[in-house]
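Quick one: sequence plus pyridoxal-5'-phosphate SMILES, need structure tokens.
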Amino acid sequence: MSTAANTLDLSNYWMPFTANRQFKSQPRILVAAEGVHYTRDDGARLLDSSAGLWCVNAGHGRAEIAEAVHRQLLTLDYSPAFQMGQPGAFDFAARVARLAPEGLDRVFFTNSGSESVDTALKIALAYHKARGEGGRFRIIGREKGYNGVGFGGISVGGLVANRRQFAGQLLPSVDHLPHTFDLAKNAFSRGQPEHGAEKADVLEGLIALHGADSIAAVIVEPVAGSAGVLPPPKGYLEKLREITAKNGILLIFDEVITGFGRLGAPFAAHRFGVTPDIITCAKGITNGALPMGAVIVDRKVHDALMAGPDNVIELFHGYTYSGHPTACAAGMATLDIYEREGLLTRVKEIEKHFEDALHSLKGKPHIIDIRNIGLMGAIELKPREDGPGKRGYDLLVDCFNSGLLIRVSGDIVAISPPLIIEPAQIDEIVEKLGAALDRLK
Ligand SMILES: Cc1ncc(COP(=O)(O)O)c(C=O)c1O
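Reply:
Sure thing.
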């Protein structure tokens, strides 16, 4: 049990995506982190099965990143992002572009995944307008999609809890593909499920309904993350690519979770062999050390906007902290670590172990599905009679008290440890989870 309630005033901080009153009556406070462990305020250690929030890919407390940020702060703490440049932003953009799939080599910096998504949607609209196709204003998202929390992101996203409080003010010209989750056909799938590629064909129907000439872009997470790790059915992303290309529609992969090695390749686009026109990313880009995101854009899309008089701003968009010097320094140091330690491909070596370990939980109480791809896994529990999410929350608390940090969405546990995790530590996650499930009502 936390000791923080006695020493901290918890009242002022309005916590994000948290049941504030429940939390503050029973707080869980983390005070330090190193490697794959957090330290609670009572000194106990927690094994981090979620890389923070899917972002600390190289593990915690990397001195190299801290030193790079420290040096940068003392050299150039901030420089205006508009009409002014600093070397770090150009260097880091070149570095990110080198990692991205071929053709995608223009990089716009943001400060979060949500900003990356809204930026990508705006670029898609501006691109069509620049080419004289301003009638393409519609954007297609997907049910169960999580594309951040900006108005653009929640409009194209498909998680009802994130939308209903704001209904009435979502973007008007949006439609959705169906999600690909199919428990009846795909339960306990390992890797990409066999069934569901035909769900991409619904895009043909949306095109027939709205007209291709009204659709700017389709945005999907290559693997839906926050909805509970839904890998794409075999052939699904290929179909989306084919249909969008045929109809002049941009394909945006929201790789905020899948970018930077989580699937055993720099991006999901590499892993699946499907190249979108725009990639949004954020988590992992600075190893969680500082807020940052990026939108990586196909050169053709970028170049279409580089038109008109050269004294006119081509994209009326940007953030005070776009390409912030410290974030770029953290990003450079992060990529040094990823490259030196082979972390962008390491998952290929450990994903079979991860898969077998997760699926060994099959048969434990309450589990209705286990699924995985790369170093992303989900364990879905049957909701309890007294309400959805309650069983998941009880599991979170039990794990926290017994030395394991887990990420829970409703009754789904998402497992996504730092990419440096050792097989024995994966076993420890599964063992602790299994014991907690045995205790769970
Ligand atoms: C796929 C995806 N897109 C966007 C976001 C939003 O990122 P942020 O919380 O950094 O705004 C997330 C966050 O989990 C995400 O998983």
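The radius of gyration is 22 Å. The pocket of pyridoxal-5'-phosphate is lined by residues 112-114, 117, 146-148, 221, 225-226, 254, 256-257, 282 (CB under 6 Å).
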